[in-house]
User: What shape does this take?
Amino acid sequence: MRNGEDLEGFDGEASSASMISAASSPYQPTTEPVSQRRGLGGLRCDLEYLRGTLGRMKVAEVVLALTAFICIETIMECSPCEGLYFFEFVSCSALVVTGALLLLFSLNLHTRIPQINWNLTDLVNTGLSTFFFFIASVVLAALNHKTGAEIAAVVFGFLAMAVYAVNTFLAVRKWRVNRQQSSRQTSDYIRARTESREVVHRPEIQRLDA
Assistant: This one.
């Protein structure tokens, strides 16, 4: 039966052995920085985008669509109401979709979903919004009863259409530039692969070591 000194010596040897084993083990405990973790905690507002041309236009589109929607919602009576309902649907849809894109772009959330072509998505949204705001504003202008809310809705509808039209032009130009860059990178990659295959299949052009 071991006495107290033997037990203390045994415990000391065990702790020393465990420390040596932990130090020599290749599997060391690691801590992941909080800033590198994925999740909502890593969101950062892209002020450069909001200060740029496209960011400002997105904000203007959201404000104009919201104002047009508020104006059309203040109308209590209508006859006929088809033009009013159509304008309400267009302004609300543009507000929701453009607001969602603004949120994604300003917080860089679109970079976490690279499977979607966001430039093309923005182009489609701005193009459709331009077309439907033009149709809805023309219809409401033809069928309104000259009330203040209807006139204001028509004015803001045409303003929103103009901003969306300019944004469409810029989105088309940006989409073309990105497409040209992508095709150029693809051609460079194919050329590099072709040259590497030629080197592999023709060993006489390889540099021989002395």
